[in-house]
Sequence to fold (318 residues):
Amino acid sequence: MDLANPSDNLSARATYSDAQINAYLHSVNIPDEHLSWAHSPPQAYLQNLQLLQGHQLATYPFENLSLHYSPTHSISLDLDVLHEKFVGRGRGGYCMENNAFFGTVLRSLGYDVTSVGARVCMGVSGGDAAKYGSWSHMVNVVTIAGKKYMVDVGFGSNGATAPLQLVENEVQKRIEPGEMRLIQSKIAEQTDANQRLWIYQIRHTPDSDWEPTYCFTETEFLPQDYELMNFWTSQNRRSFFTYSILMAMMLISEDSKLVGAVTMKDAEAKMRIGGEVVETRVCKSEQQRLQVFKEWFGIHLTPEEERAIRGTVTELKG
Fold:
């Protein structure tokens, strides 16, 4: 490569093959009438993106089981590994897995996708809602007809359920009766008041207070940035992903509307329809928890994976 006039396209990102994309579209149960949407006109891109995001959220869960139920207790961001994990095995992943995978799907379908980093609000885990953590989350920004949309399929049950345009205070519905919006502001710990970040907020009813969940930048993050973020998030013992099992998957209606969610934290699983809890299961043994994985999340672990949790802090010993 001529360093004075580089000809290699260093900005190119990997894409999936046509066969991989066709397998994905069938795996997320896109209605037959929409299966040709990869070749639809640009004005339909936003509608198709919303449809695809909903089906992704209802097919592939947010989950960190690879840190607890695998011999390596590690997470790979290799795109072919992710395709096999999701489409081949029906598994999910945590934020960087879900959004790296989904961003590559969108890019393969012709979308203009930029990946950016985010800081999660400490209030999400019961801390100070004015403070944010380090760069530990990934979101995708999709540009359609000159307008930018935040697209996130990796934040669990509090995540965005549809593309959010990068416009302040434009309230959108989540799962009824919840709502979501973006605002733009500095965060309390910043010293430069001119550096404004997008802050994703939710509220559980139209009458409740807005809660910040994470903030993100429009500065592009590169694959090597996520390798570093993924290593700390998945391997540092101060990361809650290493000592807690977390899962969430949306529930979808026949007309492709998200209507609820199933979640799991350690031994307790809940099913919500709208904003109401309709079923709770408290697992007292590994066998009971594995059954919830199968029945609620469609996840079937191998015997080797089931054994990998033995002797760890997250094992249920009942």
Notes: The helical segments are 18-27, 45-59, 79-88, 95-108, 223-235, 286-297, 303-307. Residues 23 and 88 are 9 Å apart (CA to CA).
